[in-house]
Amino acid sequence: MTTYAGQRCTSTRRLFIQRDIAPKVLETLQKAYATIPTGDPLDSSTLLGPLHNDTAVKNYHKAMLHLHNIGADVLAGGKVIHPAGFENGHFVQATIVIPPSADLDLWKKELFAPILNVAIFDDLEEAIERNNAVPQGLSSSIWTRDIRNIGKYLGPAGSDCGIVNVRQVSTCLTSLTLLLCHRLMWALVVRRLVHHLEGTSGPAGVESQGEIVGGSMLDGALAR
């Protein structure tokens, strides 16, 4: 999400989290967002650089005003900032919000700013439906420990995005990393199948614990 300050077409802008793991995931995200190094884009330690111009900053500010007006829960960020030495720069905070409804138009619009909209779901089918409810459909990703959910998300009834990732930190992928992603995914499939046939649960921590679906316009999802 913070890569390119949310201005890349495949930056993650929507995150769907399964209800039983949502509190822990959101707590972890809030802590991470609170420590994001923001400032000079030429500094290798910077994770969040500036927006590209004043119009982009105004669009971010306008979006945040709208989110506040509709009663969205802002979990992190939400402000225009002026880092030391860049008082005239176009900087904003990386932001996490939970809009009051999953049926709002904001879910379908590309803002090109570091605002991550979050929704909670109960069943993976619900997350897939929301994932596919936008006109863009560029890229998506799923984080899950259940191989059945991987098959469902990659299958004909799953994500309709042009790029579909499995357990990728970012939905931003080059063609090379996409290729590696698919190879790693199939390695995971084979490993889990072997453990299943052997009647074991696999390595420690591999058991199904919940999922996430995420993406740009594009999406991401976490499911159990």
The CATH architecture term is 3-Layer(aba) Sandwich
Low-confidence stretches: 178-183, 200-209
In round numbers, the mean pLDDT is 81
Provide the β-strand percentage band: 15-25%
Structural class: alpha/beta
Number of helices: 5
State the order of secondary-structure elements, H for helix, E for strand: EHHEEEEEHEHEHEE
Rg from Cα: 18 Å
Kindly give the count of domains: 1
Helical fraction equals 25-40%
Distance between the termini: 23 Å
CATH superfamily: Aldehyde Dehydrogenase, Chain A, domain 2
Explain this structure.
The chain is of the alpha/beta class and 224 residues long. It has a single domain, classed as 3-Layer(aba) Sandwich (Aldehyde Dehydrogenase, Chain A, domain 2). The protein contains 5 helices and 10 strands. The strands form 2 sheets. Strands 1, 2, 5, 6, 7, 8, 9 and 10 form an 8-stranded mixed β-sheet that branches. A two-stranded antiparallel sheet has the order 3-4. Helix 4 (147-154) links the parallel strand 7 and strand 8. The chain is globular and about 50 Å long. The two termini are 23 Å apart. The relative contact order is 0.22.
